[in-house]
């Protein structure tokens, strides 16, 4: 899946993946996609809830070899 920027949050524990995602998302334009890579098992529920609460769209999420990958489309 295409993304405008990739954030490497591997090895970070909660709440750092969300903190870094929020910071990176602020640098994107509306409609652009941020790809986030994380290893924290709580990332799936945390980032899904964060995206929803911020009005962003979780386009896709997958797990590959212990790495959770998320594609979040900036809404506003």
From TrEMBL:
Residues 7-31 form the UPF0033 domain. PROSITE patterns: UPF0033 (PS01148). InterPro entries: TusA-like, TusA-like_sf. Gene3D superfamilies: TusA-like domain. It holds the Pfam family TusA. Transmembrane segments: none annotated. Belongs to the sulfur carrier protein TusA family. This is Sulfurtransferase TusA family protein. It comes from Gracilibacillus marinus.
